[in-house]
Design a protein that fits this description.
- It is a single chain.
- With about 280 residues, the chain is α/β, with parallel strands linked by helices.
- The strands form two sheets. A six-stranded parallel sheet has the order 1-4-3-2-5-6, sandwiched between helices.
- α7 packs across α8 and α9 packs antiparallel against α10.
- The radius of gyration is 19 Å and the shape is globular.
- The termini are far apart.
- The mean pLDDT is about 95.
- The chain binds adenosine monophosphate (AMP).
Length: about 280
């Protein structure tokens, strides 16, 4: 049976024992309300590591809107049961007071990669992500940590933090898992109204159209981004936050012609629910 752990000292002891026995320790941080996207990360971690810890913690630092934090779904009991069934070795449910002692005032920030895309529309979001991931890395001290490609900018930012701060941790980014109709799985999908859920399938359809256009003929990046944004804006109830074509590493906006391997990244509101998605654009040559 895996341990359900709440104390920092307990998770440190557990992982120290594993490391002493030369086990490779994998770590999957999540905010819970687990779905097949999270499960794919856990399954992969179990395949390539000897021991796997999954954390479930809704990080208050990364929410730029109070209502978004308060409405974020929480299904702790189901999550724990699911993680037990999957066979993880440690389920870490941090206590708020252990992570944020009185007077907590330290932040981890980055001077590149955080101003564009989600960073532009959610001030402070990535600082909140980096701060909590840095804390969790220091607590769990895994050999490898697994993140989803659905949050590509987050993944790139964490890869950079890991390099910049010399964490001896390999960051693994894994593919986006989708519903059968193409919608990227997200804990927020369960907050969509039925009408918005139906319309939201248009996000992956729009991305598919952009991919097809690039595969078919050379495209100007800003023209293609605005055509895709126009398509998204026509979805019932949608408000486009951003739609951009970016170079794949630094995620800077591509200027001029789209190059093979560039990424299309979108964020769309349906009511108060903000959905993001992204995919590679591969040219025909
Ligand atoms: P979250 O609980 O939303 O913070 O996500 C925890 C981890 O699961 C992050 O690394 C996400 O990128 C990843 N994730 C979320 N949705 C998906 C998905 N549809 N496919 C793959 N990974 C995902």
């Amino acid at each position: 049976m895996p341990s359900v752990i709440r104390r920092v000292s307990d998770i440190r002891t557990l992982v120290a024992d594993w490391r002493g026995a030369r086990r490779v320790v994998g770590f999957v941080p999540t905010m819970g309300a687990l779905h097949e996207g999270h499960i794919s990360l856990v399954r992969h971690a179990l395949e390539v590591c000897d021991k796997v810890v999954v954390s479930v913690f809704v990080n208050p630092l990364q929410f730029d809107r109070k209502d978004d934090f308060e409405s974020y779904p929480s299904t702790e009991e189901e999550d724990v049961r699911l993680l037990m069934d999957l066979g993880v070795h440690g389920i870490y449910l941090p206590r708020h007071r252990d992570l944020f002692s009185a007077g907590f005032s330290t932040r981890v920030s980055q001077t590149s990669l955080t101003d564009q895309l989600c960073g532009a529309s959610r001030p402070g979001h990535f600082e909140g992500v980096l701060t909590i991931v840095c804390k969790l890395f220091n607590i769990v001290m895994p050999d490898r940590a697994f993140f989803g490609r659905k949050d590509l900018q987050q993944g790139r930012i964490i890869q950079k933090m890991t390099r910049d701060l010399n964490f001896p941790i390999e960051i693994v980014l894994l593919p986006t898992v989708r519903e059968s109709d193409g919608l990227a799985l997200s804990s927020r999908n369960r907050l969509l109204t039925p009408a918005h859920r139906e319309a939201a399938v248009g996000i992956s359809a729009a991305i598919g159209l952009a991919q097809a256009a690039v595969a078919d003929a050379p495209q100007d990046a800003s023209d293609l981004a605005s055509e895709t944004a126009d398509y998204l804006a026509c979805l019932d109830g949608a408000e486009v936050d951003y739609c951009q074509i970016c170079e794949p590493d630094g995620l800077e906006p591509r200027e001029g012609q789209v190059l093979s391997g560039d990424v299309i990244a979108v964020a769309v509101f349906f009511g108060a629910v903000r959905l993001i998605d992204n995919a590679d654009l591969l040219g025909s040559s």
